[in-house]
Amino acid sequence: GDSVTQMEGPVTLSEEAFLTINCTYTATGYPSLFWYVQYPGEGLQLLLKATKADDKGSNKGFEATYRKETTSFHLEKGSVQVSDSAVYFCALLSGGYQKVTFGTGTKLQVIP
Amino acid sequence: GAGVSQSPSNKVTEKGKDVELRCDPISGHTALYWYRQSLGQGLEFLIYFQGNSAPDKSGLPSDRFSAERTGGSVSTLTIQRTQQEDSAVYLCASSLIVARELTEAFFGQGTRLTVV
Predict the structure, then answer these.
(1) Whether the predicted pLDDT of A26 surpasses 80
(2) CB of B45 within 8 Å of any CB in chain A?
(3) Do B42 and A89 touch (CB under 8 A)?
(4) Do B45 and A89 touch (CB under 8 A)?
(5) Distance from CA of B85 to the nearest CA of A (A)
(6) In B, which residues are within 8 Å of A100 by CB distance?
(7) What distance in Å separates residue B17's CA from the closest CA in chain A?
(8) Tens digit of pLDDT per residue, chain B (116 long)?
(9) Nearest Cα residue to B91 out of A16, A79, A63, A91
(10) Residues A19, A5, A105, B92: is their CA dihedral positive or negative?
(11) Per-residue pLDDT reduced to its tens digit, A44-55
(12) Which residues on B lie below 8 Å from A103 (Cβ)?
């Protein structure tokens, strides 16, 4: 079945550091890929998405590129801020059942 | 509605009681999902609806859990004879079909269930 694997957290970075959160997936066909973010005390919200190979999703300074050859969708940001502290979830939406499958989430803590 | 609405936002119940959690999806969204998020854990898939039917119930943890959806809109997740391990945040999400493809899921704020 479909699955998403994320790097385990928590990840602790200093402000303005470079961020990478790894995500790899297993799916049949050609899934769409997503990153969701959950800020403390809030619900999940979509951060960015990519619907086909080599697409780059971007939002709020975050980027992720859909790499079919490595089945990856790593999240990156060049300079993190304290306000980026949250839990980040990688997800895929596949054909067939068309069910959204989530990774286990990676907690990011940015310290001043 | 403007977003996915869940009620109640918080529920404290005694062990052994039944609870009902409600989800009101975004108007026009035909796909509806229930997930569970336990403290410090990731998102656990429970059930997925396409219209009123549930093609995937594989995530329901036991026969104490059931869900229904009527009129292609509101969904109710019912937990019978609650146990302490049922304590979690229950999240509902909905998504739209565009050109026969599902789009991204939009989440509600969740119902925090505490079984004491």
Answers:
(1) yes
(2) yes
(3) yes
(4) no
(5) 19
(6) 33, 93, 95, 102, 105
(7) 27
(8) 579 999 999 999 999 999 999 999 999 898 899 999 987 677 888 998 988 888 778 889 999 999 999 888 999 999 999 999 999 999 999 988 776 666 788 999 999 999 99
(9) A91
(10) positive
(11) 999 999 988 999
(12) 42
DSSP, collapsed to helix, strand or coil, labels residue A12 as strand
Which residue is it, tokens 């656990």?
B44
Rounded to a whole number of angstroms, the distance from the CA of A15 to the nearest CA of chain B is 24
Helix-strand-coil split of chain A, %, nearest 5: 5, 55, 45
pLDDT recorded at residue B100: 61
Q: Give the DSSP letter string of B58-99.
A: TT--STTEEEEE-TTS-EEEEE-S--GGG-EEEEEEEE-EET
Tokens 């990856």, located at residue: A72
